[in-house]
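User: Teach me something about this protein's shape.
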Amino acid sequence: MVSLTGSGRSAKVKKAKLVTKAGYDFKAIGDYKILKKTSPLREMVLDQFNRIGIIFPYNPTLNLQAAVTYGQYDLTHTNYQPHFYSNTQNQQITLGINLTATTLEEANYMCGIMWFLRTITKMSFGKGDKEFSGMPPPVLEFSCYGDYQFKDVPVVIRSFSYDQSGSEDYVDTSYNTQVPTFLTGFIDIITQYTPGKTLNKF
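Assistant: First, the predicted structure itself:
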């Protein structure tokens, strides 16, 4: 939550966020990497290291897709075929994001978001990862615009993209990396409810 002050009363601006669930074991993505001063993932640490994730500096645009699957009865000698309900598919949400890097803090945060998306969409793998080898990417929580919009909705990231056209100026970060002064992109997420929660708390 950010307070904006100016003429008149200040306004509390609620920010959209895409974060790990409380209690997520950071060892699964290498907690030592997050704590290293040279890792951009340090920028994504929230709540005294209880979570990591993105608090969007500018609220993203949302594109929502929902679909219902129906089957069809093929009756003989009828002009219209009746349908029967099969299932409701998980909701797909595409986030359109905008990022700026006009200060060193913003540049570091942009670098952190880019590295977070690369890291959080991969499984644990390799000979050196004996404890979590094969563990899939975590289920995240998406929140935006309050109780009856999106509040701690469990989601997984299906894809992400961002454009670096080369026409923008590039600035240094604290991580020996350069980022553009302006970045646009998309994050495609889909809801991921467990069968037990759906059965008991629908």
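Now, about its shape. The chain has three helices and 14 strands. The longest helix spans residues 104-120. If you'd like, I can walk through any region in more detail.
User: That's plenty for now, thanks!
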